[in-house]
Amino acid sequence: MPSPDESETVVQVYSTDNAIDKYTEMNEFGLYEAEAKLVDRYFQPRTARVLDVACGAGRTTKPLAVTGYDVVGIDISNEMASKAKSVIPGTEVCVSDASSLPFRDESFDFVLFSYVNIDLLYPRAQRLRALREMNRVLKRGGLLLFGTSNSLHVVPALFQNRDHLRRFYVRNDNYRRLFRAYKKDPDEWGLNSYFGTQPRTLWDLRRCGFRTEHVGGARDSLLRFLEKVQYYVARKSQDV
Predict the structure, then answer these.
(1) Which phi and psi angles does 153 have, rounded to 5°?
(2) pTM score, two decimals?
(3) Mean pLDDT across the stretch 168-193?
(4) DSSP 3-state helix, strand, coil percentages of the chain (rounded to 5)?
């Protein structure tokens, strides 16, 4: 379990004006292309109840609500949750840690943990607790959609994305963490960010009560396995 200091640091970071401004600006993007495709394919019917974890200032919550989903957003920062409420009037948004959700068992049809926000759960035990909590609040057969950073992206990055190598493998003392799953993320104010592998993620999902139904990225070809971000769709087992 993270120390009180670590948890407080995360809350403090996402309560600053800089963080609020950054995530408010991101609202204009709505669901990213890969997210939108998977939501459209898997989140049916469009009146289903959806939990939007780490909703930030509402980038994903607003388009889900506009589409017709009965959506509830949560964020660890009170300031961020307040901003989301202001841009999505009438939608429930509350303050909560993903590893301790304030909802009853089997409360939601779907859970979205957008982009790579799950990677900011530190240490890895916290990540696993969150997966178990999302499994708990999903109805039997319900789906979890999330993105996660792909450590294999280091291969094409050698030729196409040198900045990625500098930021996550050289700067911020990350050269000391070459063989560790967590690196310091310069885009998220130096917080720990997880870089996993597909076998590890598949195993984590299985041990937390999920059956993986989709792994992909922006591409449909085999190159998707080398993309910077991989998206997973996992179904809660019917036999929990």
Answers:
(1) -65, -15
(2) 0.94
(3) 92
(4) 45, 25, 30
| Cβ–Cβ < 8 Å for 58, 80 | no
Q: Which residues pair with 110 in a beta bridge?
A: 50, 143
Q: Across the chain, how many H-helices and E-strands are there?
A: 9, 9
Closest CA relative to residue 204, chosen from 98, 101, 131, 111: 131
Alpha-carbon separation of residue 62 from 88, 109, 119, 151, 180 (angstroms):
6, 18, 22, 31, 36
How far is it, in rounded angstroms, from Cα 233 to Cα 152? 19
List pLDDT tens digits, range 104-132: 999 999 999 999 999 999 999 999 999 99
For the domain 4-150+195-236, what is the CATH superfamily, name and number? Vaccinia Virus protein VP39 (3.40.50.150)
